[in-house]
Design goal:
By secondary structure, the protein is mainly beta. It has one domain: Rieske Iron-sulfur Protein (3-layer Sandwich). It has no helices and ten strands. The termini are close together.
């Protein structure tokens, strides 16, 4: 079974989108980010304070759309690896969530199941 997060065309370029992994209290808030045809996902949690990254639900990019930016203290993280490059947590990284492109879809990679987004089984 493939767990779909969203269609690539539903994610702005550059852009971000929030989604949940796992049900209810056990779930983790996550964000999907896009640049061009590349997509990455991370837990929606700053490594410095543990606070959510988003300044509006699912919105985590800097005004220029070049970095993931913490809403609390403006730390900036590279999109491609989650490494902090500016702010009080330089050298720390966001916790990655494995995703991949599958045709027109962005899907949860096989190593991390349980997304509670608009998940459906992929039909080839």
């Amino acid at each position: 079974m493939t767990i779909r997060i969203c269609r690539l065309s539903d994610l702005p370029d550059p852009g971000s989108l929030g989604f949940e992994l796992g049900p209810g209290v056990e779930g983790r808030s996550c964000v999907l980010v896009r640049r061009g045809d590349a997509v990455w996902a991370y837990e929606n949690r700053c490594p410095h304070t543990g606070a959510p990254l988003d300044w509006r639900p699912g919105q985590v990019l800097s005004p220029e759309g070049t970095h993931i930016q913490c809403a609390l203290h403006l730390a900036q993280f590279r999109m491609e690896d989650g490494q902090c490059v500016h702010g009080p947590c330089v050298g720390q990284s966001l916790r990655a969530v494995p995703v991949r492109r599958e045709g027109a879809w962005v899907v949860l990679a096989a190593t991390d199941r349980g997304a509670s987004t608009s998940s459906e089984e992929a039909d080839g």
